[in-house]
Amino acid sequence: MYGGWTGEIMENDDDTKEDPQSQVKNSVSMEKNSCDKDTFRLHMVTWNVATADPPDDISSLLHLNSPKAPDLYVIGFIIDMAVEDSWSHLFMSSLAPRGYLKVSSIRMQGLLLLFFSKLAHVPFIRDIQDTYSRTGISGYWGNKGGVSIRLSFYGHMLCFLNCHLAAHMQYASQRVDEFEYILDTQTFDPKKTPHILDHKLVFWFGDLNFRIQDHGMHFLRNCITSHKFNLLWSKDQLTMMKKTEALLQEFDEGPLDFQPTYKFDRFSDCYDSRSHGTWFGFHGKMRKPAWTDRILWRVKPKEPPPEEEKDEDRDSGLDEKNTKNQQEEEFPLKLKQDSYTSNMEYGVSDHKPVIGIFTLELRKMYEAPLVRVCAEGEWSADFDAMVIYSPLQPFPSSAWDWIGLYKVGFRSVSDYITYTWVKDDEVSFNDELTQVYVSKDEIPALGGECVLCYYCSTLQCIVGISSPFKVHESKVAVEEGLTPENIDGLEKATAS
């Protein structure tokens, strides 16, 4: 029933420039083996938190004390907050000091998706796009639907889809229809992967709202109390729908060896014990427990070998298709699920969070970043500074590319202290190196540990990161007795 745990997949002409913050839309754990592949640890979370404020500590949720640090974090929320949410800030503040950067995020009213990466991987994450689909209230309301982030990770196309589907026991078929609608309506720019299912690896997760039908409340709770979860699997609606829906059969899921994650009394481990008030003073039934919160994945099936080529096939794109198949065999990707469980520690919501840990094994399509960037000489606010960068391979550079100065431990691309336009502030260049000027007035007077990041405006991502370097404290500022409140642009920039 839960087979398939592993699977093979294999220059702008505008006259004005936007501020880089508006351009930004929204120890590497690699183990070499005999096949020259690398492994990466992926930590995924799905959680319906509704209107709840975040807990004080999310260490257990993110396994922050585990000796095996993930390379990537993907966190999907169902969240009913109309304004800037405190959940995003909590996760950024918790992960940034540990060397993780928020690479991308997308919010559609009731859905939020966050993607974090170890800093060492960031220059190898490209083709980042996000989109959304509404399915709530005739497709006009964003309380239901799906948000997705797609990207290239070392050349392999991945897509993460966070969904909140129709609620209630009787709408299992509608949930499948909504999922198919989301897959049909979400599209991306590159021709090679215009749809979600074109990606090598797709994760589908969220509050999918499938219920456990037929069983009565007494039998359900006895099975949960005795940890005989397998007695409930056959009546799980998603499992049942997979028997008849070919699309669902393409998605794998680990065994549900954890208790149903919905519906709990808040701040307790007790299932729905209170009567629910409805209109005119009547009371509704208690909600039955269910595995509404799920994490599934799909590895793109290998295409069958083409039949003997005909002359007319050459003009119909068969050669291109063969090249694509050869590339997938040359650069394979495998996925293995290491853990699939819920975390009963958190009670801020009537749902418990679900965590999936995966090992991603792949052969990289490239080893070097697009750009090498570094700080030249000694840096302080007492004199102007120079940045040196050199392209390591061709990429679509433009006059709107910029290099940002960041404090070590920055949270997102928009957290720069200052930036310099690579063309406007260019001092000199040759075929291999380019020098770019940075004014001393833009350098933090109190100094600190910093890095430089080259941001490609066309690709909308960081394509090169320097090694950390020391920005020295300004001697002039110290001699003049300036207070930190007046000169510490470093802390003010990151705090804002």
How would the global form be characterised?
globular
Any idea what the radius of gyration is?
25 Å
Secondary-structure-based class equals alpha+beta
Output the strand order for the largest sheet.
Answer: 1-13-14-2-3-5-4
Mean of residue pLDDT values? 87
Count of beta strands: 24
Instruction: Please give the largest β-sheet.
Output: 7 strands, mixed
Unreliable stretches: 1-14, 26-34, 278-282, 486-491
Proportion of residues in β-strands: 25-35%
Number of helices: 13
The helix content is 10-25%
N- and C-termini, Cα separation: 50 Å
Q: Can you lay out the helices and strands and say which pair or pack?
A:
Elements: E1 6-8, H1 20-23, E2 38-50, H2 59-62, E3 72-79, H3 86-95, E4 100-108, E5 111-118, E6 125-136, E7 141-153, E8 156-164, H4 172-185, E9 201-207, H5 217-225, H6 230-233, H7 237-242, H8 246-249, E10 276-277, E11 283-284, E12 293-299, H9 311-314, H10 318-330, E13 333-342, E14 354-362, E15 371-376, E16 379-380, E17 385-391, E18 402-407, E19 418-421, E20 426-429, E21 434-438, E22 448-456, E23 461-465, E24 469-472, H11 475-479, H12 484-487, H13 489-495
Describe the structure.
This protein has 496 residues and is of the alpha+beta class. It contains 13 helices and 24 strands. It has helices at residues 20-23, 59-62, 86-95, 172-185, 217-225, 230-233, 237-242, 246-249, 311-314, 318-330, 475-479, 484-487, 489-495; strands at 6-8, 38-50, 72-79, 100-108, 111-118, 125-136, 141-153, 156-164, 201-207, 276-277, 283-284, 293-299, 333-342, 354-362, 371-376, 379-380, 385-391, 402-407, 418-421, 426-429, 434-438, 448-456, 461-465, 469-472. It has a 7-stranded mixed sheet with strand order 1-13-14-2-3-5-4, covered by helices on one side. Strands 16, 18, 19, 22, 23 and 24 form a 6-stranded mixed sheet that branches. Strand 6 and strand 7 (141-153) form a beta hairpin. The longest helix has 14 residues, at 172-185. It is globular and about 75 Å long. It starts with 5 loop residues before the first strand and ends with a helix.
